């Protein structure tokens, strides 16, 4: 049976792992290869690295640590953050990333998703969407969640699916950093409107939150804080999910 | 020397990383002269069947691959290319195994099939188990990413996986082996499959 995936997320700035709470107030938590390797050995199903380096100039070093990660970690990993051209996607895949996630640049230029999906295959293009509740629905935010756009999140995600992306990485701006649980309404609405996998992100504070997200339709759950600060091990989380009849990989 | 086939379509880097980790000596090449001298061949693959077959044809590799007598491993699309035909753009493939590769039905299940799924050996007593699965527990999880799948074809299907319906995830015909999952992305157990392939005796 296809297992639900548990994905630790590592935010990386200038080659070091940090974790933002509401995308500000960063705390240093170590080396990408070291932390990624720990999660790999603990049984993570995939890893996501979001590069939040502020300047384009400093971001050029990304390829170096991506290569180092690929040398030692034999599970799939996604790299995102500041990717705006097909050439950048190519460089990251070539360095060993399995998938690349695209966020703000796709909002400005949706055809980037189509081009990248055609060039490298849908399976390696992830559309990352930062969504925030506004009135009756959710709007897309860009630039690390700082700027509101006029795009409706559900419509944008459906458009991404049509353009050929393979997965949606869905972050709730309302829940992110709260550790009070994922935005289940958003997650349910998105899961029901598309036919590609959805990775839930933003708000995980306990194994119960992961269970809720998987029950409303997420195919995978992304979490940071609950793993980074040793509150729960990946094995503990998987044991809990398995006890609650969620198929998880345990080999 | 192990040759990893470069046909400009797949992501070869991670297969290479896994082979390096296993301390295997390999080269990446699309040159028929190099491939025909290999003592072991790996055909990795991400991308479309049509593009891959066109590229193999242009490079003059089709007959070279079909005529190989050394251990061969097709990964993901590399497994699918072993069959007669793929429904992906109705592409004739290498034809080393009978049957047609078909697309998952996206009205029933999410396509592509992405994630960790289980491989079961076929418990037919007449079926020899795959040497690639030596020492690997039944129903172990491996990492899959694909939209097309191989049929179950006795006696060539040696491992199967369920997604919507059952499909062939481990196949073999003499020296030709194929796995639908990515052993290079399937953690320790995937590396074990690659190691098993490296230990397959040339006949």
Notes on the protein architecture:
- The complex is a heterodimer of chains A (251) and B (203).
- Chain A has one domain: Aldolase class I (TIM Barrel, Alpha-Beta Barrel).
- In chain A, 38% of the residues lie in helices and 28% in strands.
- Chain A contains 11 helices and 12 strands.
- Chain A has helices spanning 32-42, 56-59, 62-72, 86-95, 104-108, 111-120, 153-163, 184-193, 207-215, 225-228, 234-243; strands at residues 5-13, 16-21, 24-30, 47-51, 77-80, 99-102, 125-134, 137-142, 147-152, 167-172, 198-201, 220-223.
- An 8-stranded parallel barrel of chain A has the order 1-4-5-6-7-10-11-12, surrounded by 7 helices.
- In chain A, helix 1 (32-42) runs parallel beside helix 3 and helix 9 crosses helix 11.
- With 203 residues, chain B is of the alpha/beta class.
- Chain B has a single domain (2-198), classed as 3-Layer(aba) Sandwich (Rossmann fold).
- Chain B has helices spanning 13-21, 32-36, 49-58, 62-66, 77-80, 187-198, and strands spanning 2-5, 26-29, 40-43, 72-75, 83-86, 91-92, 97-103, 113-121, 140-146, 148-149, 157-163, 165-173, 176-179.
- The model of chain B has no long low-confidence stretch (mean pLDDT 92).
- Chains A and B meet through helix 3 and helix 4 of A and helix 1, strand 8, strand 9 and helix 6 of B.
């Amino acid at each position: 049976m296809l297992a639900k995936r548990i994905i630790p997320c590592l935010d990386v700035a200038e080659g070091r792992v940090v974790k933002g709470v509401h995308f500000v107030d960063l705390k240093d938590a170590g080396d990408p290869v070291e932390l990624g390797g720990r999660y790999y050995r603990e049984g993570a199903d995939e890893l996501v690295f979001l590069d939040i380096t502020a300047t384009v100039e400093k971001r050029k070093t990304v390829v170096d640590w991506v290569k180092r990660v690929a040398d030692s970690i034999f599970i799939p990993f996604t790299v995102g953050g500041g990717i705006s051209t097909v050439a950048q996607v190519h460089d990251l895949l070539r360095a060993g990333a399995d998938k690349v996630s695209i966020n703000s640049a796709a909002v400005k230029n949706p055809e980037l998703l189509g081009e990248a999906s055609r060039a490298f295959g849908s399976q390696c293009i992830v559309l990352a969407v930062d969504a925030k509740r506004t009135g009756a629905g959710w709007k897309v935010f860009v630039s690390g969640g700082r700027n509101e756009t006029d795009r409706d999140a559900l419509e944008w995600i459906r458009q991404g699916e049509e353009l050929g992306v393979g997965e949606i990485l869905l972050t709730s701006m309302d829940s992110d950093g709260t550790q009070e649980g994922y935005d289940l309404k958003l997650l349910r609405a998105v899961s029901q409107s598309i036919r590609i996998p959805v990775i839930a992100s933003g708000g995980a504070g306990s194994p119960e939150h992961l269970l809720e997200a998987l029950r409303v339709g997420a195919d995978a759950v992304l979490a940071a804080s609950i793993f980074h600060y040793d509150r729960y091990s990946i094995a503990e989380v998987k044991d809990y999910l398995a006890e609650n009849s969620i198929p998880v990989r345990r080999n | 020397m192990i040759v990893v086939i470069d046909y400009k379509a797949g992501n070869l880097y991670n297969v290479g990383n896994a082979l390096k980790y296993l301390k295997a000596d390999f080269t990446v090449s699309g040159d028929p002269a190099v491939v025909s001298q290999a003592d072991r061949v790996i055909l990795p693959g991400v991308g479309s069947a049509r593009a891959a077959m066109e590229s193999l044809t242009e490079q003059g590799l089709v007959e070279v691959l079909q005529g190989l007598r050394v251990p061969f491993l097709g990964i993901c699309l590399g497994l699918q290319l072993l069959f007669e035909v793929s429904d992906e753009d109705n592409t004739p493939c290498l034809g080393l195994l009978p049957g047609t590769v078909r697309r998952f039905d996206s009205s029933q299940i999410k396509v592509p099939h992405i994630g960790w799924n289980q491989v079961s050996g076929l418990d037919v007593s007449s079926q020899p188990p795959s040497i690639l699965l030596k020492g690997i527990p039944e129903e172990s999880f491996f990492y899959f990413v694909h939209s097309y799948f191989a049929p179950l074809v006795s006696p060539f299907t040696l491992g199967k996986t369920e997604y919507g319906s059952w499909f062939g995830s481990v196949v073999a015909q003499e020296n030709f082996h194929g796995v639908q999952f990515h052993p290079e992305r399937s953690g320790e157990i995937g590396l074990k499959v690659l190691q098993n392939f490296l230990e397959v005796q040339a006949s």
